[in-house]
């Protein structure tokens, strides 16, 4: 496997994280500029079926596919991986809160507060994950794995 191909794994993680950040920005704009309540609900339904599913899928794939490979390569990262999995669980809980607020027809302030919570934890998580894993991913030989298998494609 070429060094160029191996280095692509770290970049793939960064790319997925950026796309998730962009999706969160779009969701925030749909809340802040929603206009009519029906339009806001439709936009947020799109957000939840897109962003929430993508973020959850990304984390489930990391837990099931990527993290076992990381631990195989670097067993000393067990505490780091444990913290990342804990973050994934916290973000899943926050997503459930947003979905509940949406289905309860909460006002813009409540929806934005839920989104702020997701964003704060997500951003801290992404930065920590990138600091801890991108260098390792750039060195790892993950032969036979696809981007979709490890990270879930984010369009």
Question: In brief, what are we looking at here?
Answer:
This protein is an all-alpha fold and 155 residues long. It has five helices and no strands. It has a single domain, classed as Four Helix Bundle (Hemerythrin (Met), subunit A).
Notable traits:
mainly alpha; Four Helix Bundle (Hemerythrin (Met), subunit A); disordered N terminus; 155 residues; 5 helices
Can you offer a commentary on this structure?
- The chain is an all-alpha fold and 155 residues long.
- The chain has one domain: Four Helix Bundle (Hemerythrin (Met), subunit A).
- The longest helix is centred in the middle third of the chain and has 37 residues.
- The relative contact order is 0.19.
Question: Helices, strands, pairings?
Answer:
Layout: H1 3-32, H2 37-73, H3 78-103, H4 108-139, H5 147-151
Biggest beta sheet summary: none
What structural class do you assign from the helix and strand content? mainly alpha
CATH class: Mainly Alpha
Number of strands: 0
Listing every helix as H and every strand as E from the N terminus to the C terminus, the arrangement reads HHHHH
What is the beta-strand fraction?
under 5%
CATH level-3 fold name: Four Helix Bundle (Hemerythrin (Met), subunit A)
Number of H/I helices: 5
| Overall tally of structural domains | 1
Low-confidence blocks of residues: 1-7
* CA-CA gap between termini: 26 Å
